[in-house]
Specification:
It is a single chain. By secondary structure, the chain is of the alpha/beta class. It is built from 17 helices and ten strands. Helix 2 runs parallel beside helix 5 (about 140-165) and helix 4 (about 125-140) packs antiparallel against helix 10 (about 305-325). The longest helix is centred in the middle third of the chain and has 54 residues, at about 225-280. The radius of gyration is 34 Å and the shape is elongated. It starts with 6 loop residues before the first helix and ends with a strand.
């Protein structure tokens, strides 16, 4: 009886496989390292075999002619072991690190269509962990899983063949010992460390979440006396991660010990099998040395197999976390691009037009916007009001194509369904409730909008939004704004965000709750400055849950439960 997996489970497995495939370097880059690893490990086994034969044969005091070739072989395999070990490290790490850069870049590219609305339910620590720790873990797939397994299997098979040429029963014993060692060591590692290995990646993300929450909200934590509780969460997360790492290290040490014990048992078993033949004279002393000592060299190479199994569990756990944090497919509700960006803004023409538009957030069961009709003409100021949850932010994100929509949405008579989201956002710009300010100076935060702007243009834009005197008090454009605008007030952050939008020159500007976090007494002044700074030909969609002076807008649209009611 077979159990059928749910579509969600099948999709998750497919995404994990896609992540793992992306972590493997191309064959043309992978095979030089794999071949070098095989030759290096094979040289180690051959070195021990030839050395054992040489020492025992030399003790019999034969003519020098009989051992010259063995002397040359010892020198050859000693050199090739070191040379191929170097080329192995050089080639394999070069291939893995190149693929690591490709994997990380691919992950960022996958995140771009998800941002910002497809990542709202993903904690920042999870995304940070996926981009840093989990992607770093993926490099172990070629380095510590595939390559060791391929090289060890090939060397072990070659060693069995070598011993079989010398004494077939000993070769069979070696083969059985290798099989038993593989099963026992892998099961030991799974039983003692599998849970710890799978938990390490989530525990790292938990610690990252705790640290980000602590430092990102430190002022609030201190103000409400919750800093010590936050520190306790960090200490608990760190302790759990440390325990998991210790358990993993203990499991790996135990696995190495098991392999060492089985290596000794393999040599004893080989001696027991070969001793009767040596006693009868059918097996010479040099050959007996090969049969007894080769298993030790083979098991030294074979020790990487159970470690590869442990690395595989870690790599797979990292791949599962990456697939969970950044899915391959777009969640329902996000825009699925069907055309490539052209780099040109669609003409506004007669303005924006929405007819029967519905939209919902990714993962939501019901739409947040339902059958909305809205027209925005060039130069018009439209105020959209409604209580929290009425659909105002959904409308804003639909207008800039962060969210997909059903119904008719046109810009200048052209349907946005045939436009790339980047091109739509060249015409329709968004100033969010909490503007993103980078931990740079004022100049750099404005240059993101127009990298060719001169300092005079930047200062003029700040003057238009009422920040001229503030800028001069702060010492000019080189003044820092802090991480996420920590060194400026909420109103100043909104003004900097609007100055950035003015520099870009959006024909339509959506202001989503620009007075959020601003003192009520200063909100009217802020709105007056913001709307006065916008050019007469620019349309504005102002979204607000607070009262706005009627003289600042041309008309009011009211939303309730995702519908236009007035």
């Amino acid at each position: 009886m077979t159990l059928r997996q749910s579509p969600e489970a099948q999709e998750t497995r497919s995404e994990v496989r896609a992540v793992l495939r992306g972590a493997m370097p191309p064959l043309k880059r992978f095979w030089p390292g794999a071949a070098s690893a095989f030759l290096s490990e094979g040289s180690a086994v051959a070195l021990l075999a030839v050395s054992a034969w040489l020492i025992v044969r030399a003790s019999e005091q034969p003519a020098v002619l009989y051992i010259t070739a063995a002397v040359v072989g010892v020198r050859l395999f000693a050199l090739t072991r070191a040379v191929f070990r170097y080329t192995d490290r050089l080639s394999s790490h070069d291939a893995a690190l190149r693929q690591l850069a490709t994997t990380r870049t691919s992950l960022v590219r996958r995140m771009i269509p998800l941002a910002p609305d497809g990542l709202t339910r993903t904690r920042r620590g999870s995304v940070l962990g996926a981009l840093v720790d989990d992607v770093d873990e993926l490099q172990n797939l070629p380095l510590r899983v595939v390559q060791p397994l391929v090289g060890s299997a090939a060397v072990a098979l070659g060693a069995v063949v070598l011993v079989a040429v010398v004494h077939p029963p000993a070769a069979l014993t070696l083969l059985v010992c290798l099989a038993v060692a593989g099963v026992v060591a892998t099961l030991w590692g799974w039983a003692s460390g599998a849970r710890a290995e799978r938990s390490i990646a989530p525990l790292r993300a938990r610690l990252a979440d705790a640290l980000l929450d602590h430092f990102g909200s430190l002022d609030v934590l201190v103000a409400y006396g919750a800093e010590e509780a936050s520190r306790a969460r960090i200490r608990a997360a760190d302790a759990d991660l440390r325990r998991a790492l210790v358990r993993r290290a203990g499991a790996q040490a135990g696995t190495a010990a098991v392999v060492s014990l089985l290596a000794g048992a393999a040599s004893i078993a080989a001696l027991s099998v070969a001793a009767p033949a040596a006693a009868s004279g059918s097996l010479g002393g040099p050959e007996l040395a090969i049969v007894v000592l080769v298993p030790m060299a083979v098991f030294e190479v074979f020790a990487s197999v159970p470690l590869a199994a442990a690395s595989w569990r870690q790599v797979r756990a990292a791949a599962e976390r990456i697939a969970g944090a950044v899915p391959v497919g777009l969640p329902h509700g996000l825009v699925r691009e069907t055309v490539a960006p052209t780099g040109h803004a669609p003409e506004l023409g007669e303005g924006l037009s929405l007819r029967g538009v519905s939209a919902h957030w990714p993962g939501a069961d019901s739409p947040s916007l339902l059958d909305v009709d809205l027209d925005v003409r060039p130069g018009e100021r439209v105020l959209v009001v409604g209580s929290s949850g009425a659909g105002k932010t959904t409308l804003a994100h639909t207008l800039v194509r962060f969210l997909d929509s059903r119904g008719g949405y046109t810009i200048g008579g052209e349907s946005v369904a045939g436009l790339a989201g980047d091109d739509v956002r060249r015409t329709v710009g968004l100033c969010e409730q909490h503007p993103m300010l980078f931990d740079e100076d004022v100049r750099q935060n404005l240059l993101f909008a127009k990298d060719t702007a001169t300092d005079a243009e930047l200062e003029a834009a700040l003057d238009r939004v009422g920040l001229g005197p503030w800028l001069r008090e702060r010492g000019g454009l080189s003044a820092r704004v802090g991480e996420r605008g920590a060194l400026v007030s909420g109103g100043q952050a909104q003004r900097i965000s609007l100055a950035r939008a003015l520099l870009h020159g959006f024909p339509v500007l959506v202001l989503d709750e620009p007075t959020a976090g601003v003192d009520p007494d200063a909100s009217d002044a802020l709105l007056t400055d913001l709307l006065s700074a916008v050019g007469p030909d620019q349309a504005v969609v102002l979204i607000s849950h607070v009262t706005v002076p009627g003289a600042l807008v041309d008309r009011v649209v009211r939303l309730h439960d995702g519908r236009v009611v007035a």
